[in-house]
Amino acid sequence: MRNLLIALLMWSGPALASDASSTDDLINLVKQDCGSCHGLTLKGGLGPDIRPQSLSHYDVETLSTVVLDGIPDTAMPPWRPLLSEADAQKIAEYLLQGDLK
Ligand code: HEC
């Protein structure tokens, strides 16, 4: 519970608005914010399965654009207001590899 609180504080804080979010911040964001729709283990919920095997048709560039701009006319929101392009690229790499490098 305490960790969740800290993560939420970090999430609403200025850390994510800057260019260089820490890897931990980004992993937390993916698990909690993306996970709220795509499922905690990202295997699908309201949104589809976004584990690596389901995203193999994406390259990092396309995937980070999907994260930044969302998918129009669907529940998939644009994250550009919260994430820099560098952050989105890290998230895309994380999603494709299942591990943030
Ligand atoms: C409010 C719910 C919601 C949240 C939060 C959300 N998504 Fe989505 N996402 C969706 C929905 C719904 C779709 C399917 C859109 C469609 O019908 O094509 C989707 C689609 C996607 C796709 C495309 C999947 C494919 O197979 O083409 C990716 C990638 C994705 N989301 C990544 C993310 C990431 C990364 C985050 C967190 C930064 C995130 N989503 C947060 C609802 C959400």
Structural class: mainly alpha
Topology as a string of helices (H) and strands (E): HHHH
Mean pLDDT over the full residue set = 85
CATH architecture: Orthogonal Bundle
Please name the fourth-level CATH homologous superfamily: Cytochrome c-like domain
Question: How many angstroms separate the termini?
Answer: 27 Å
**Strand composition percent:** under 5%
Task: Offer a few descriptive terms.
binds heme C; 101 residues; 50% helix; single chain; Cytochrome Bc1 Complex, Chain D, domain 2
Walk me through this protein's architecture.
The protein is mainly alpha-helical. The chain has one domain: Cytochrome Bc1 Complex, Chain D, domain 2, CATH 1.10.760. Helix content is 50%, strand content 0%. It contains 4 helices and no strands. Helix 2 crosses helix 4 and helix 3 crosses helix 4. The longest helix has 16 residues. The termini are far apart. The protein binds heme C. The site of heme C has 23 residues, from helix 2, helix 3 and helix 4.
Write a concise synopsis of the structure shown:
By secondary structure, this protein is mainly alpha-helical.
List the helices and strands and how they pair.
Layout: H1 2-12, H2 23-38, H3 60-69, H4 85-97
